[in-house]
## 1
Amino acid sequence: MADSPRIWVVIAAYNEARVIAHVVGDVARRGYHVVVVDDGSGDGTAEHAATAAAVVRHPVNLGQGAALQTGIDYALHQGADVIVTFDADGQHRASDIERLVAALREAPADFALGSRFLGDAIALSTARRLLLRAATLFTQLTTGLRLTDTHNGLRAMTRHGAEKIRLRQNRMAHASEILAQIAASGLPYVEVPVRIEYTAYSLAKGQRLGDALAILLDLFARRLYR
Amino acid sequence: MTAQIALTVLLAGVLVYAGNERRRSPVVAWLSIVAAVAGLYCTWVPDHATTLAHWAGIGRGVDLVIYIWVCITLIVLLNLHLKLRTQMELVTELARTIALAEARTQPVRKPERRRLARRAG
């Protein structure tokens, strides 16, 4: 990694006009390059994001996984040394980006994965906590990665690591797919405590219990074809 | 005999279909082959079909053949679903290529802090 790495923050957004300008502004103020992938929004998300970020627009809604891969491709093309994925709904803290990037350098590792269970999860309900614990156990069993948190959208990767990632799960199952690809790459990874602050807005946009079944089905279906 | 020939033709069609799908989705292909071969066996050896049906708790051999046919239909449906997913991946690649091509024609925005620092300097 370079001494002063070019850090690109990738934000996938779908109908986030209410919060995106604030989220992007908070990240951009810290000196990071930001790319927002507008995943076919119909509420002016792209225009709001464009005040402080580069914007890539999907012509149709494809899903968060597809948007993240588009953002990663864009950042790699712009010469990024480090790529950070960051949620658009305002539940992550921009100050955690620095900790993730520092962890990549200090470990050293190619992936730094945010963990709300090593850090803080504000206003996390018991049901969601149990669901996330079950997802973590599933990930440990299927990938062999020793993690405390999965489906956390805050993560950083070196350019070398990002080049090993090719998301084919367009929707929510991408979070499990990326961990499977990290495991398959054999590259070093590290978990970093991060703080996630759930708000009524982020909870309304977030995953539900029924999504867990859809994710499992997506992961299973993906194994059935090449 | 007419029904046996008709079923044989249909099941042979399933085998050809499975053969064509073997490279793209091997799991579905092998499931189809197993179901089709079982169907052919039950069609031409009905006595065994009846014995097997009794053993499986199904009344008649012909019912067993129908159930196998239902299984084949479900497997083919699964394969259609997988084909739709493959098509979606192609659509995704296409949409991504268009989105990135459009984005690359726009100037890249510089980080805000650096711009502010420059302005202050």
## 2
Amino acid sequence: MWNPVIGLEIHVQLNTKSKIFSSASTNFGANQNTQACAIDLGMPGVLPVLNEQAVFMAIKFGLAIGAKISNNSIFARKNYFYPDLPKGYQISQYETPIVSGGSINIESENTTKKINITRAHLEEDAGKSIHDLYEDESAIDLNRAGIPLIEIVSEPEMSSANEAVQYLKKMHSLIKYLNISDGNMEEGSFRCDANISLKKSESKILGTRAEIKNINSFKFVENAINFEINRQSQILNDGGTIIQETRLYNSSKNETKSMRSKEEANDYRYFPDPDLLPVSISKKLIEEIKNSMPELPENKKKRFMSQYGLSDYDTSILITDRELSEFFEEVLNKKELNPKLTANWIITEMLALAKKSNLDVKDYPVTSEDLAILLTYIKDEVISSKQAKKIFERMWMNKEKPQEIIENEGLEQISDLGELNKIVDNIIKNNYKSVEDYQSGKTKLLGFFVGQVMKETQGKANPKIVNKLLKEKLKK
Amino acid sequence: MVLIGLHFQDTLNMDKTTIIKIADLAKIEIKDDELNDITDSLKKILNLVDEMNSVKTDDVVPMSHPLNLSQELRKDEVLEDNKRDIFQKDNKYTENGYYKVPKIID
Amino acid sequence: MHNKTVSELIDDIKNKKVSSLELTKHFISRIKKLDKKLNSFITITEEHALREAKKIDADIAKGIIKPLSGIPFAQKDIFCTKNIKTTCGSKMLENFISPYDATVVEKLNNAGMIIIGKTNMDEFAMGSSNETSYFGDVKNPWDLDFVPGGSSGGSAASVSARLIPCSTGTDTGGSIRQPASLCGVCGIKPTYGRVSRYGMIAFASSLDQAGVFTTTAKDCAILLSHISGYDPKDSTSSREPVPDYHSDCLKKFKPLKIGIPREFLDGLDTNVREVFDDSIKVFEANGCSIKKISLKSSKISVSAYQVVAPAECSSNLSRFDGVRYGYRAESVKNIDELYKKSRSQGFGQEVKRRILIGTYALSAGYYDAYYLKAQKIRKIISNEFAQAFKDVDLVLGPTAPDSAFKIGEKSNDPIAMYLSDIFTVSANLAGLPAMSIPMGFKNKLPLGLQIIGNHFDEPKILSLACHFQNITDWHTKKPKISGD
């Protein structure tokens, strides 16, 4: 009866070294107000100067989503009073955003759905107000004031909480791929606001929407949107009307609540900032940036599937994180390895350990070189897969080198036919009852024999060869 | 974003209610005994300003900068160091490096 | 000594006829003696000046001499000066000490000049009479009952009274030229973007420009070269190369084509008209051609200005909220009160009025009718000047509609006050350079001649002004202050 209509606004902090309009540092976690210079503090007489990297990053983003890049975009002042806004206005963009149009594709209900982007513009971040440090006062830290943001506004084309989450994840992956942001939701470099309304399925008329602000995890986004959809349908089913308002999501109570803040009564009085000039972007600059773009996730996926013959599922995992996909290819390039087995190893063994240690690819204790060496040992049957798993764990935990582990502990597989023949013969001799049972049909007992050989050889016997020999010798 | 803005009406809408709204937006306090004078002078100024309407500007492109220049771009480098103590030197409403304001209840 | 020009003092210092310390002491004692009558200074930086003067003298002894070494001057109290109070004529910044120097300050310091003090001004540069300063009115040295003009009243009056040989000022709608005219001194507002605005407390960002006051046009030329130039810290500053304005002044005069807008003469006071006509005759006699032109939109220039300037200032002054610096009201109950009380107690009436008008002009529903409309009028005015400059080199007219008015005469009539800028605002709206030089008197009060040029045509303006001053001697007339 009610169809949800969802639009998302994402604020992404760009990972430039310095701020968008000043040369102060953007490092996270600095002591309060130690990274706020005169411009960030809104001191009298100081003036903003635009950081080129912020512009380049915005262009990169625009190109990645197939958007139009404005060649004459203007910064505007958004005027309101709040202690974390030192100048009493935020420098943002209003009528002429640097990026407009464009789209990304999301997977929804087993099909691909295109979500259009309305616009993306550059603006400066505000500082932080902390309300629980002092009893009667709020504390203001302006380190964050001036950090460049790109605000990405989607068309209201998502129809479920799931689609919204897919969109967010796709965007999140994209901005990390482009290396324009670290996308760290806990640290506030990827913030999401959702606009939700309901409309009658047969109707084209949109309902009144509510805005849910500053949700900082994918899970919370899903919960908040579902709660909101529920809340609104209940009201509408009871014959009530939706108030256009801003609401905050409370994750512990899993509900959205109306924000009774002064910001709502504001008239922002946008006008072009007279301290800044129109940003002129030449075709040449756009070409240069286009040529410096990394391979985008969608293209990489297609390439991995065709070049390496990997499954959709496996590829999706490998390409989620650009650094992981690069790690995978580095491993392949070091030695001649089977892509499917390499992918499998990374997905099952490595990612499991990475998850446990909660590490990013760049902090992995195992290098692509070392993993390549280990996988080569498996390929050459120097060690068995089972052994490899144990060795890999040690490489991960202790940063040991595979060659060293194998040499020091003499773990090389025993593949010598002569030696194995002797051992197999021995086992058969000493277990004639089981041999009889096997020959009378209990073929499952093969495992027992293999186990015995392994025990005898401390697990070093080449399982393939052992299997072959046993099968031959146990024949009647 | 809800705009409890001002509805578009005749330009000479400088009355007391409007002024009180504007003053709130601008965070300026107008005392009751000042209100009449301010309303009066603002009305007069708007009268002067309305003379702009005597000139047709339908096809004119607005100017925001006298020279037709483009924004110069700055290299992305950190050139500022921590000067917190200097900036907060004369401000007694700071503690532990924070600026302090009366508690804000959201 | 105090009747010497900057040019003469430069020579005296170079030729060791006078030391920097002597000069500095002389002007300081003059200020101390006479400024109580004028109130043209907010801060006198005696210690700093003496210290710097001694340093300069030591350098000169070693043979290190900079272009303006040892010349004392004053900075309008709108320029941030490190370790010296910058009040902007306001209670809001009564005790504000900036941790950085404005670019203009840095440049003149680097040229060897010595700051003797910060001059009084209309609060936040809003005014045409210097009657809105928190630190009291400035008096016109020609008659202490009369205004010196504004907003750079202190800078104009102090040069006029020869308390200093030169000073800096700022001009948003006429705030250098109009006080120069009323005080009988030279004042130049350069092309928009010629001089960096970094560190100059902003009033209306797209109109503000820094400039100088001197007693001669030649001195203006010397100082202009030193304050001009591209500044990467000011995105609106221009990369146009800076010529040696002084040498342009000394070149042989090439007759120029002068345009006089009929709108500047309509209804003009007869005395002012007479004096103006006499000045024009000087130019005619020297080979200049005079042409009557029309700048139709100059009639509504004040209307457009009274939207753009307040709109931009309403936003520029939002940073004054008592939180990080400046005046802060005590015992406030909540953040809203903190803002409202700090700003209402810290700002004067005129500032509040302009913030309110500006906020209104930008508000939802009014933006198109006011701000956008005014920006379109600007374009029209600019186009009209561009057309005019196809036919003429310079546009001339009286700087102000009349000589100085009495203190208190217009302070309750904002419209009358705003109309004193009727001839000056167009140059700001179009970003054009303009200068005022003394051209005569009406009832013993000075009158100024305004010379407007095309963008970056300061050399033509200065050439005409210098030539005028080679032939006439209005610029040598000095006020007589009792006790002097």
